[in-house]
Design brief:
heterodimer, A: mainly beta, Porin, 16-stranded antiparallel barrel, B: about 140 residues, alpha/beta, 6-stranded mixed beta sheet, 6 strands
């Protein structure tokens, strides 16, 4: 397994060194572009193991990478696809997946359509959460962008209708409305969390997502505000281990996710804030377990400043509450996280980040968020400090 | 004496100010328009617009660095070089756009724009612009 992983890393590193600006060539008179990225991290925690890694002993199981190819078939019609793989502790295990693959036809500025497997717009950074080089931080605030639930949020198989409405002195309003089948990762955190809770998933995880996002690039240069609403249905079959493996059909008939966000960039300064709410009712058939309502909240405020083209520093404060109807102070109902980062841009295509996290609480194991029971057989403790070293390249 | 002191002060102030190059916007002759609004120009160079209001298809071409590049970004795009490149990377890696071609010199930009249908770029105002048309920015 170790040899296989390095077998993937070395050609990628060579590729990046050989073409740091990506590759462009022509096929039948059309320009084709190839781009990629790769990152490797090291995670060390002083208490709980994080994200299914053996992080209390120091873990390098924090690897991801992707490569895409795209071209414009006409001035208005673009096609492309991206493959992506990651290995985060016990999650994903290097499985190569089709990250996105779609055709995009833009009629004009205010109307375009995309169809295929499309990245879901949800808040500021959902669709770019894998591209660490776009962000100051080694790890985005888990209160709003949980790495373990990436597969649940990252893309949909369906389509988007999108466009920009430019209102001269009032700035630009960008919208996207989408719908499609939800994505899944057989080795993702959602399934890992359910298995942790004694109800391992059997077969596929189905459902759909419909949503919309509207964002306003205000007349104040660099200030963006917006909101996303997504309604989703999830269906799966699991085994209830406490009842001798009784088959259990689980569904969330109409969960609702909301995001409100703002970002301001000027010069080297970037500040952002987001608030999210995920509300769902979980139903079980047969009714051996009563329907459960969960009202999850998360927010963060972040800031970073580029002191020099090669050096940037930043911080964020994030808070996750598994169920807002229960006391927030319980360690199994919240995770507060304060992070500090220093980012060094070695080259335009290569960065190194050093990040410290100071976390309080470990969340609910049913929430599939950061801390799980199986990697922590000794039990979870309320406070965990964490060091992340991460380096990434892109071309 | 007073005049000499005033001239010296003016020289010191002038040297302390950032130097912004005069920039010319150049386009392939296939682009029908002879002028472009600052707003349209910004949207073209953010990858949000692939045709002008007269229907001409356009493709932005960037410089890699230099005074003309810095001036253009500051005056028309409103982003730093790093922020603009990150913006295009976010489009490229989500499948929503392509990375524009970029060149090291005015001459390279002009040569590419001259031979590429729909290409639109920028160069220092003093650069030779054979084979391309200059667009006035409204």
């Amino acid at each position: 397994m170790r040899t296989r992983k390095w077998g993937m890393v070395l050609p990628l590193m060579w590729l990046v060194a050989a073409m740091p600006a990506g590759a462009q060539f022509e096929v039948a008179g059309r320009k084709v572009q190839v781009h990629g990225f790769f990152s490797q991290g090291f995670v060390l925690t002083d208490q709980n193991n994080f994200l299914t890694m053996k992080s209390s002993a120091g873990s390098f199981a924090f690897t991801d990478g992707g490569m895409n190819i795209s071209t414009k078939l006409t001035n208005k019609f673009r096609v492309g696809a991206q493959a992506y793989a990651r290995n985060i502790g016990e999650l994903s295990n290097g499985r190569v997946e089709l990250d996105w693959a779609y055709g995009d036809y833009r009629f004009n500025d205010w109307l375009g359509i995309r169809a295929g497997k499309v990245k879901s717009t949800m808040g500021l950074y959902n669709d770019t959460q894998d591209m660490e080089f776009l962000h100051a931080f080694a790890l985005l605030p888990q209160s709003v962008y949980p790495t373990d639930l990436r597969a649940s949020n990252i893309a949909h198989r369906g389509g988007d209708i999108y466009g920009d409405v430019h209102v001269k002195k009032a700035g630009t309003f960008s919208y996207v409305f989408y719908g499609g089948l939800r994505s899944d990762d057989p080795r993702g955190g959602y399934r890992y969390g359910l298995t942790d809770g004694g109800i391992p998933v059997v077969g596929s995880l189905d459902g759909y997502r419909i949503g919309g996002d509207v964002r306003w690039a205000t007349p104040l240069e660099g200030l963006l505000v917006g909101a996303t609403a997504v309604r989703a249905r999830t269906e799966l079959t699991a085994r209830l281990e406490a009842a001798g493996g009784l088959p259990l059909f689980i569904q969330t008939p109409g969960s609702m996710s909301l995001r409100y966000y703002g970002e301001y960039q000027t010069g080297g300064l970037k500040v952002a804030a987001e608030y999210g709410r995920d509300y769902s009712v979980i139903e079980f058939t047969p009714r051996v377990v009563a329907p459960a309502q969960i009202d999850t909240r998360g927010w963060y405020v972040s800031g970073s400043y580029k002191f020099h083209p090669r050096f940037e520093a930043g911080a964020y404060r994030g808070q996750y509450v598994y169920d807002a109807r229960v006391s927030r102070s319980l360690p199994d109902n919240h995770i507060d996280d304060t992070a500090l980062v220093a980012r060094f841009n070695v080259k335009g295509y290569w960065n190194v980040k050093v990040e410290g996290h100071f976390m309080d609480g470990y969340g609910n194991r049913a929430g599939a968020r950061s801390f799980y029971a199986r990697p922590n057989p000794q039990g979870l403790v309320p406070r965990t400090n964490m060091l992340i070293l991460r380096t990434g390249v892109n071309f | 004496m007073k005049l000499r002191i005033a001239k010296s002060i003016m020289l010191v102030v002038a040297l302390a100010l950032p130097v912004w190059a005069e920039v010319a916007v150049v386009a392939n002759p296939s682009v029908g328009a002879s002028e472009i609004s600052a707003d349209e120009l910004k949207r073209v160079f953010l990858g949000a617009k692939s045709s002008l209001s007269d229907g001409s298809a356009v493709e932005p071409v960037l410089m890699q660095s230099g005074a003309a590049h810095e001036s253009f970004l500051k005056e028309y795009v409103g982003k730093t070089d790093a922020a603009l490149r990150n913006h295009f990377k976010s489009l490229v890696f989500t499948g929503k756009g392509s990375m524009p071609k970029s060149f090291a010199s005015d001459a390279d930009v002009v040569a590419y724009v001259a031979k590429t249908k729909g290409a639109i770029g920028y160069v220092g105002n003093a650069a030779a612009a054979a084979g391309v048309k200059r667009l006035a920015v409204k």
